[in-house]
Amino acid sequence: MSNKIKEMIYIKGDRIYFTPFLKEYDVTDHITTLLQELRKLKER
Predict the structure, then answer these.
(1) Which of 12, 26, 28, 33 could make a disulfide contact with 16, Cβ separation 3.0–4.6 Å?
(2) How far is CA 28 from CA 3, 19, 41, 43, in A?
(3) What does the alpha-carbon distance between residue 43 and residue 3 come to, in Å, rounded to a whole number?
(4) pTM of the shown model
(5) Phi, psi of 29 (to 5 degrees)
(6) Is residue 13 in a domain?
(7) CA-to-CA distance for 36 and 33, rounded, in angstroms?
(8) How many C-beta neighbours within 10 Å does residue 17 have?
(9) What one-character-per-residue DSSP string does 3-44 give?
(10) How confident is the model at residue 21, as a pLDDT?
(11) How many structural domains are present in the chain?
(12) pLDDT 10s digits, 1-44
């Protein structure tokens, strides 16, 4: 049985990458910002 993966998130070194449609994007900074904002909401 074969599966095609269209989207993948993975860690390379200390960075987080997202690869939709075989293009690689470094999303580490976006995820870091998101986590910071979520922490602020949790502290309220």
Answers:
(1) 28
(2) 27, 13, 20, 23
(3) 41
(4) 0.63
(5) -65, -40
(6) yes
(7) 5
(8) 15
(9) ---S--EEEETTEEEE-GGG--EE-HHHHHHHHHHHHHHHH-
(10) 78
(11) 1
(12) 556 666 788 888 989 888 887 788 999 999 999 999 999 998 88
Amino acid at 10: Y
Give the pLDDT score at 11: 87
Q: Residue 39 is encoded by which pair of tokens?
A: 């922490």
Identify whether 38 is part of a domain: yes
| DSSP type of residue 1 | -
Q: What is the pLDDT of residue 2?
A: 58
Find the domain containing 23 and state its range.
9-43
Q: Which amino acid is at 36?
A: Q
Residue 15 covered by a domain: yes
